[in-house]
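Q: Hi! First time asking for a complex rather than a single chain. Here are the components, and I think there are six in total. Is that enough to go on?
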Amino acid sequence: MPMVTIQVTREGSTPDRKSVTAAEKAALIKGVSQLLLDVLNKPLDATFVVIEEVEMENWGVGGLPVEAYRKLKAQ
Amino acid sequence: MPMVTIQVTREGSTPDRKSVTAAEKAALIKGVSQLLLDVLNKPLDATFVVIEEVEMENWGVGGLPVEAYRKLKAQ
Amino acid sequence: MPMVTIQVTREGSTPDRKSVTAAEKAALIKGVSQLLLDVLNKPLDATFVVIEEVEMENWGVGGLPVEAYRKLKAQ
Amino acid sequence: MPMVTIQVTREGSTPDRKSVTAAEKAALIKGVSQLLLDVLNKPLDATFVVIEEVEMENWGVGGLPVEAYRKLKAQ
Amino acid sequence: MPMVTIQVTREGSTPDRKSVTAAEKAALIKGVSQLLLDVLNKPLDATFVVIEEVEMENWGVGGLPVEAYRKLKAQ
Amino acid sequence: MPMVTIQVTREGSTPDRKSVTAAEKAALIKGVSQLLLDVLNKPLDATFVVIEEVEMENWGVGGLPVEAYRKLKAQ
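A: Yes, that's all I need. Here is the structure of the assembled complex.
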């Protein structure tokens, strides 16, 4: 009875997208549920998946909000 | 000093409702805090409760987003 | 499809116990699943519950580990 | 490779503010990342921080939603 | 910068195993990190994965500890 | 009423230590509680902190368990 939580920043996977699409979310749910079936023999029905989209300003890395961190690394 | 997290899909408890109501949230907070007092002798003041409402498309079960899963099961 | 996480300190509910008992855990699982059925009409089968026992030295409140905090408050 | 989750109620730090500001979030990210460097020698780059703002009606303490609890305590 | 948490019951994937093996954990980490690269273009280096093994008596479903639930369903 | 969760790998902060010490945990609890007081005016008493130590083989980054990842990076 696995429970999977996927936290990602709320942004698009390509520059023309503003957020994760419903199709991408469905692909994450399908992929990770299949992975738990393949690796641990967990039936698909027994796996719950929750996707949490986190606002960019609420995500930090390197001691900075993620956008400031990326700008610094891109320099 | 218990900490309880309740994650539910963002939908109403009856067809005419679109989301969990404030009264329902208060009932969850009261009920689970009382449960921790009854079972583990935890004072009400010592229990924190956080309710997280998860968008339907962000919740997966059976390898599918929850709405697609329910449709499949209803067939 | 609710998911409930209950975090408690790893200690007994009475002085002669060292930890939460299996019967107490079962009572928490039963009680919170029933609460979600009563308040939000969630079927028992759709609710997952995870209990996390946290070592006393890993739990803080009031800027102190919980045992130090309780001693301070008891003075 | 630490992961820090900070959950706070969605409210301002002073009466004239409605929510946590971007500057306050940056200060939380900076401060907690520095703390993990100072105490555990974790490099800044290795620490992820996620801030979760929780609606007031979704946070409970003392068996009540937090606003009702504060009113009761203020009496 | 995704963060994935995988919670599973502490039990083996086959009857002769008592717990998830290190090789199975590595397969979960590899698979879910690859999934986030494939679906959302997240670089492997940017994804953190945490696996949490939960004691059987700490996991509930259907209002019962998971072992009691499975026995009931197997009848 | 903030809730802070700090997840770290279960290892020492220096080569001669096997795990995080009680003094280091107390320093994390004190530091992050003070941070929330300084930045958001949250009273010390209102902040809960939970430290979760995660086994090395249960933590992944770069598609690998963390020890394999560090060896690769050290080459």
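A: Chain B has a mean pLDDT of 95. Let me know if you'd like any chain examined more closely.
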